[in-house]
Design brief:
alpha/beta; 9 helices; Rossmann fold; 42% helix; five-stranded parallel beta sheet
Length: 252
């Protein structure tokens, strides 16, 4: 099955699921198979258990479309701005017309799916902060993950041509510096850093700000060595503040 045919079948399946809810079939049986040889990280795909959340979030965003100037998108780390990072969010972005589309557990393909579902339709933000890819580590190669991130940047550029993309490097994870994921993340970040042109795509890597002198992650900054604490979100906000100030200096 070709990619376009696959996506068409996927759309029909998920639309029916969203309207009718779960059936006796498993999610695995509901979804059409991915075409042979296709890179799962670069093909739009939904998670059926969050279809309703995507719909609700999109509706909420569209009601305030003319107010949204700053978009954040990603996985649970970005979603956490509404949890552990709530107070930091309010302090740094509360007056900037900011909106958080991040969803826990999302991989690159899920962000692509959300964009295909009209996530930013009618929006005209100044800045879009993206950080995604850590959840792909268990199923995709470094090159595939980088391709997925690239697809997201290009999709956002197509849908929001007036916006600047603030592409953030994937955060370090794992307690110790020799955690196998550290080297992979570094390699992926090296690839996606090439997307930055300093104008329409600003790439920033501040992962070292979370680390101890020996390269380890402190539970004070990332309790599970993946998701930031409130202090971790403050580090994050301060790291990207110079970029934010470039576009919103007078409003903070």
């Amino acid at each position: 099955m070709k990619i376009q045919a696959y996506l068409a079948a996927l759309f029909v399946t998920v639309s029916a699921f969203a309207q009718n809810g779960p059936t006796e079939l498993t999610i695995k049986n509901l979804l059409p198979p991915l075409p042979v040889g296709a890179n799962s990280a670069a093909v739009a795909a939904p998670k059926l258990d969050w279809v309703e959340r995507v719909k609700t979030t999109n509706e909420r965003a569209h009601k305030q479309a003319d107010q949204i100037q700053l978009v954040f998108d990603g996985d649970s780390i970005t979603d956490g701005w509404q949890g552990r990072g709530r107070e930091v969010w309010a302090e740094h972005y509360g007056k900037l017309g900011a909106f958080d589309f991040g969803i826990s557990g999302d991989r690159t393909e899920h962000v692509l799916w959300r964009l295909n579902q009209g996530q930013v339709e009618g929006l005209n933000p100044k800045l879009i902060a993206v950080m995604i890819g850590t959840n792909n580590l268990g199923r995709n190669s470094n090159e595939q993950i980088a391709e997925g991130v690239t697809a997201i940047v290009k999709d956002y550029q197509k849908r929001c041509p007036n916006a600047v993309i603030l592409l953030q490097a994937i955060f370090p994870r794992g307690k110790m510096a020799n955690d196998p994921n550290r080297a992979r993340i570094k390699a992926i970040n090296a690839i996606i850093s090439k997307l930055g042109d300093g104008k329409k795509v600003v790439f920033i890597d501040f992962g070292d700000k979370f680390l101890e002198p020996d390269g380890s992650l402190s539970p004070e900054i990332m309790p599970d060595f993946l998701h930031p604490s409130a202090k971790g979100y403050e580090i994050w906000a301060n790291a990207i503040q110079p970029v934010i100030d470039t576009y919103f200096a007078a409003k903070r």
